[in-house]
Amino acid sequence: MTESAPVKPVVVWDLPIRLFHWCLAALVAVALVSGHLDKLTPHMKAGTLILALLLFRLGWGVVGSPTARFAQFVGGPGRIRAYLDGTWTGLGHNPLGALSVLAMLALLLVQAGSGLFATDDIATDAPLAWMVSSAVTKRLSTLHRLGSWAVVALVAAHLAAIAFYRIKKGKNLVAPMISGHGEPDLPCAPQRLASPWLALALAVAAAALVFGALAAWGR
């Protein structure tokens, strides 16, 4: 009986996605810790950088490498059902992982956006708090505080999923996000990566948009 050839590792995650992932993880940790310790200066700086990163990720989800594109990994109930049945194969995010990615991006966008209008009701107002009424500011501040616990819960679920795949399925999800390489479920051709210069231009544009807007309207 002839043994099938081993599946060769391929590039799963391009460098821009890996840098985004680890920078976002570090900044979210800083934002959570500083926020709960009432260290608002580093908290707001981390939140601003998170917003710029999220704008970059939204753009890269449209023009980036195949595994980064939303059109590639976001599927409907059919893909989720196939994954649960064990018949789904693919490179990059699986259908359930795609849902967690969307949930995390959406939640962090809400957090970063609401944080721009929040206040601590003592001495510190966010840079755009002056643009809305005090009632709106209070509602957004409450949303921001509650949302921080939702972020903690989602991060905990993310870490639990990584541990589950490692322990129960013997699949290391962290290593490919460091090296970029992973073993696909089935042999496949290498994906055609998007230009890193395009990623750099997109990152600069996202940063310019966020910091330019705050410079123009922030107080």
From TrEMBL:
| Highest taxon, organism lineage | Bacteria
Report the Gene3D superfamilies cross-referenced here: Transmembrane di-heme cytochromes, Chain C
The terms under GO molecular function for this entry are:
electron transfer activity; heme binding
> A GO CC term?
plasma membrane
Which Gene Ontology BP terms does the record give? respiratory electron transport chain
List UniProt keywords, sorted A-Z. Answer: Cell membrane, Membrane, Transmembrane, Transmembrane helix
- Membrane topology reported for the UniProt record: Multi-pass membrane protein
Q: Where in the cell is it found?
A: Cell membrane
Q: SUPFAM superfamilies attached here?
A: Transmembrane di-heme cytochromes
Membrane-spanning intervals of the chain: 19-37, 49-71, 91-110, 146-167, 197-217
- Mainly localized where? membrane
Domain Cytochrome b561 bacterial/Ni-hydrogenase: from-to ranges? 12-180
- Name of this chain's protein: Cytochrome B
> Which lineage do the record's taxonomy fields give for this organism?
Bacteria, Pseudomonadati, Pseudomonadota, Alphaproteobacteria, Rhodospirillales
